């Protein structure tokens, strides 16, 4: 039987009140749209669009083009403006990269650096220094040493540039020459080097009896899975009873690779807490069912150039008491960058979050403190002494 339609009465006063409330809320949102959009739209999956008045920038551009006594490349001016805009964020990790710079950066992340001179370098004491020379490569053969400050490349002063810029100058075609000038004990020393193909694997394992020494130089996308395969294929046959994980000089890379590596010790527990814009929080957990080394005594080697994804690994293993951390205070990079593809093949690397260890500790600017402190000097490195590795074997 069809239900009979009934007329319902609505209070006029109630309708008026509802309309007034709706208008007030709409007015508040309209007057504060920028704040509303910035704070709430990201939760709904929307990207906020920002409109700005660029008239003052146009004024500078026009004045420069109309008055400069010389040739100007307008495309270069625009690229320079993009770099300046990003640099004004005053964050050393947030950078704009041109198409060529983006290609070089992504190739370096993959370890595909082509030809070079065979050094590892990082910021130390305010300068980019040589951390070590790779075996059987041009720099080491010529006499470049750990601790050298990279001063000039092809007579261009680069001591005040970042390591990524310096790396781009040192890399090139196989067989081509590059002049490297370093500062050592207050004196300039120059080397004429011929670039060679660099064997630059991200991870490898050596053995000392029943101890496996896993060296991870950076975190490529497949670094974690590479180590997982080695553990699965070799450790049982070699009767491995102890692991030394060497993260010294490892400046980081992909967080996903750090997660895969940590999953050898930690099973499906949180390994990383990220807090980003608008206090959004994300928790990354280790993979399930891959913790083949969960009960294997482990020592992690770290130093002042252990950074970013490497510190995620060291911090998580320390929090869960899965390893003894040995060496020197780590770098202290507790922020996460996201790579954003822009038009024309350009790239923006932008800081999007801060990260915390599973226990909620921030290491940004502080680093991971070793459980056992052992120093390795540049003199030790240059004379092939390794007191940190020696101490790890005794743990």
User: What form results from the Cα inertia axes?
Assistant: globular
Number of helices: 12
Helix content: 25-40%
The main pleated sheet reads as: 6 strands, mixed
In percent, how much strand structure appears in the residues? 25-35%
- End-to-end distance, in Å? 85 Å
Q: Supply the helix-strand structural class.
A: alpha+beta
What is the gyration radius calculated from CA atoms? Answer: 27 Å
Widest sheet, order of strands: 10-11-12-15-16-19
Please give a structural write-up.
This protein is an alpha+beta fold. It has 12 helices and 19 strands. The chain has a 6-stranded mixed β-sheet with strand order 10-11-12-15-16-19, with helices on both faces. Strands 1, 13, 14, 17 and 18 form a 5-stranded antiparallel β-sheet that branches. A hairpin with a 2-residue loop joins β3 (119-124) and β4 (127-133). α8 packs parallel to α9. The radius of gyration is 27 Å and the shape is globular. It starts with 11 loop residues before the first helix and ends with a helix. 28% of the residues are buried.
Note the main attributes of this structure.
alpha+beta; six-stranded mixed β-sheet; 19 strands
Question: Can you summarize this structure?
Answer:
By secondary structure, the chain is of the alpha+beta class.
SSE map:
Elements: H1 12-31, H2 33-40, H3 55-67, H4 74-87, E1 95-97, H5 99-110, E2 115-116, E3 119-124, E4 127-133, H6 138-142, E5 149-153, E6 156-157, H7 163-170, E7 177-184, E8 187-194, E9 196-197, E10 203-208, E11 211-216, H8 223-235, E12 242-246, H9 255-262, E13 270-276, E14 281-285, E15 298-302, H10 309-319, E16 324-327, E17 335-341, E18 347-356, E19 372-373, H11 378-382, H12 387-394
Parallel strand pairs: 11-12, 12-15, 15-16, 16-19
Antiparallel strand pairs: 1-18, 2-9, 3-4, 5-6, 5-7, 7-8, 10-11, 13-14, 13-18, 17-18
């Amino acid at each position: 039987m069809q239900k009979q339609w009934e007329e319902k009465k609505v209070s006029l006063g109630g309708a008026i009140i509802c309309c007034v409330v709706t208008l007030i809320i709409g007015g508040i949102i309209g007057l504060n749209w920028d704040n509303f959009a910035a704070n709430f739209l990201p939760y709904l999956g929307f990207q906020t669009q920002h409109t700005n008045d660029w008239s003052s920038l146009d004024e500078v551009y026009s004045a420069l083009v109309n008055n400069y006594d010389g040739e100007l490349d307008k495309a270069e001016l625009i690229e320079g403006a993009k770099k300046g805009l990003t640099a004004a964020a005053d964050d050393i990790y947030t950078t704009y990269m041109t198409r060529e710079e983006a290609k070089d950066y992504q190739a370096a992340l993959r370890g595909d650096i082509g030809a070079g001179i065979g050094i590892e370098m990082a910021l130390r004491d305010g300068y980019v220094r040589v951390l070590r020379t790779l075996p059987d490569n041009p720099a080491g053969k010529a006499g470049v040493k750990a601790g050298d400050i990279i001063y000039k490349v092809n007579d261009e002063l680069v001591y005040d540039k970042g390591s990524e810029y310096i790396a781009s100058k040192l890399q090139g075609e196989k067989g081509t020459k590059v002049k490297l000038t370093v500062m050592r004990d207050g004196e300039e020393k120059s080397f004429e080097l011929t670039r060679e193909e660099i064997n630059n694997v991200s991870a490898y394992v050596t053995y000392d009896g029943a101890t496996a020494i896993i060296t991870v130089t950076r975190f490529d996308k497949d670094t974690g899975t590479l180590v997982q395969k080695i553990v699965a294929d070799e450790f049982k046959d070699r009767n491995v009873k102890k692991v030394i994980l060497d993260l010294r000089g490892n400046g980081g890379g992909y967080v996903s690779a750090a997660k895969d590596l940590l999953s050898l010790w930690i099973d499906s527990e949180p390994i990383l807490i990220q807090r980003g814009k608008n206090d959004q929080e994300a928790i990354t957990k280790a993979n399930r069912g891959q913790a083949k080394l969960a009960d294997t005594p482990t020592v992690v080697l770290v130093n002042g150039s252990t950074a970013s994804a490497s510190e995620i690994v060291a911090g998580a293993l320390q929090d869960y008491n899965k390893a003894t951390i040995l060496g020197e205070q780590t770098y202290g990079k507790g922020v996460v960058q996201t790579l954003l593809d822009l038009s024309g093949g350009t790239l923006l690397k932008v800081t999007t979050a801060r990260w915390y260890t599973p226990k909620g500790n921030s290491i940004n600017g502080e680093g991971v403190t070793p459980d056992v402190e052992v120093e390795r000097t540049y003199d030790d490195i240059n004379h092939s002494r390794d007191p940190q590795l020696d101490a790890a074997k005794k743990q």
